[in-house]
Amino acid sequence: MSSHTHIATNAEVPDVTRQLVDWIVDIKGSHISAEVRREGLRTFVNWVGCAVGGARHETVDRALAAVSPFSGKASSTVLGRPEQLDALHAALLNGITSHVLDFDDTHLKTIIHPAGPVASALLALAELRPMSGEDFLTALIVGIEVECRIGNAVYPNHYDRGWHITGTAGVFGAAAATGKAIGLSKQQMRWAFGLAATQSSGLREMFGTMTKSFHPGRAAQNGLTSALLAEANFDSSERAIEAPRGFANVTSTKQDYSEILDDLGTRWESALNSYKPYACGIVIHPTIDGCQQIRADIGDRVNAIKSVHLTTHPLVLELTGKKTPRTGLEGKFSVYHSAAAALLKGDGAPTAFTDEMVNQPEITALRDRISATADPECHEASVTIDVTFEDGSTLRKHIERALGSKDVPLTDDQVDDKFVTQSALVIGEDAARELLAISWNLENLSSVADVARVSAGRTTDQAKAG
Questions:
Q1: Phi and psi at residue 460, in whole multiples of 5°?
Q2: Domain map of the chain by residue range?
Q3: Using one digit for the tens of pLDDT, what is the confidence trace for 80-138?
Q4: 247/199 Cα distance (integer angstroms)
Q5: Cα 61 vs. chain centroid, distance in angstroms?
Q6: Is the peptide bond before 350 cis (omega within 30 degrees of 0)?
Q7: Whole-angstrom Cα Rg for the chain
Q8: Angle (nearest 5°) at CA 224 between 223 and 225
């Protein structure tokens, strides 16, 4: 008897890629409900703010320095910066900028950050090939739906094996969205999926480094490349998702194709998208929320804290258990640093995750007095925080669901505040508010490229003049 793991043959699984592609090509904007389109718009607005907010991070500076000499004819904007690159490199850079602060959207079922790969590819394309806001939003929603459904089919096994699912599933979303936007045929879209599948990558080992944000950037770039190659009739496998040696079987021990095909067009994964109030891994959010509430409750007694103990789900410590982070990026993966910054500074914004903040003496001193226990019975989105004071008194705070979760979502006003707060640091408050307004007006734009122009401080006339 063979010792090899059984892999399903073509005859044993549905024609997943073909059925998904048929839906992508056939769906029209009018088929998408106003509620779903509204959530897609919120996703776009949140993404623009995050991309501009991260535009001046040293990660972006280094990436630009590395790739700019190899860019083709400048056509597409790096949001929030004066630089323009060719569309493929702009997709890469905007994927990096939108994720580098870990402030972007999250599909809660899979921990995919949906907008980064998809919106970055689409907007770079929209500056190269004119696209209306209405068509852009339709393509964005379709791309997000595709990447999240493919993610659902392999999660959590795929993620547990060490794949960064934003990168691996995101390339399919970017290919679907840009392929939809340029009008690929069903044959071409199947090829685009094959091209995307073979470029699917991203390892969780990279968390806490600059390379984590490279994953959605490369997914955007590779997805756009896939669509453009397919448009030129560059062929590929037509069963890239479900084939015995295709994406799902190679990268996961779980293949639930019903998650991809069931209720297409009626059950929308984009409706499960969420927007972060804190600029770090979402599993830390309950701890930050609770620590900020404790700070508000105890006032000056925060300086009399003797110790803090967190009881949380094992995944929290698996993902964010860095006890002694050295950099701001590492701090985003330290529940200990995040708790200390929230207690002492009331901060969970990008300013909480700088190199300076991570190494601030009072932060490190409190961080050293924070401990944590992993409890499998604790929900991933919950935490219990026990504080002991120098006088022996104690305080307990339990967070069942944090701000920004599906149960306590950010309002439009909170999304606006988040947008302006982070992007104003890069482009100034007046420009940030102008950009916010045009982003909310997406569906009425005759050219989505206007969003990119405003983010870089260029008028439409200036952009046309080169």
A1: -60, -40
A2: 10-274, 282-399
A3: 999 999 999 999 999 999 999 999 999 999 999 999 999 999 999 999 999 999 999 99
A4: 10
A5: 20
A6: no
A7: 22
A8: 90
Q: Rounded to two decimals, what is the model's pTM?
A: 0.92
Q: Inter-axis angle of helices 429-440 and 412-427, to 10 degrees?
A: 140
CA distances from 191 to 121, 172, 177, 308 (A): 18, 11, 14, 54
Q: Does the fold of domain 282-399 match that of domain 10-274?
A: no
Phi then psi for residue 371, to 5 deg, are -125, 170
Write the class of the CATH domain 10-274.
mainly alpha
Cα distance between residue 100 and residue 102, in whole Å: 6
**Distance of alpha carbon 200 from alpha carbon 354, whole angstroms:** 30
Domain 282-399 CATH superfamily: 2-methylcitrate dehydratase PrpD (3.30.1330.120)
CA-nearest of 218, 188, 202 to 21 is 188
| Count of Cβ atoms closer than 10 Å to residue 50 Cβ | 32
Looking at the chain, how many residues does it have? Answer: 466
Tokens of 304: 């009399």
229-285 confidence digits (pLDDT tens): 999 999 999 999 999 999 999 999 999 999 999 999 999 998 889 999 999 989 999
- How remote is the C-alpha of 97 from its chain's centroid? 11
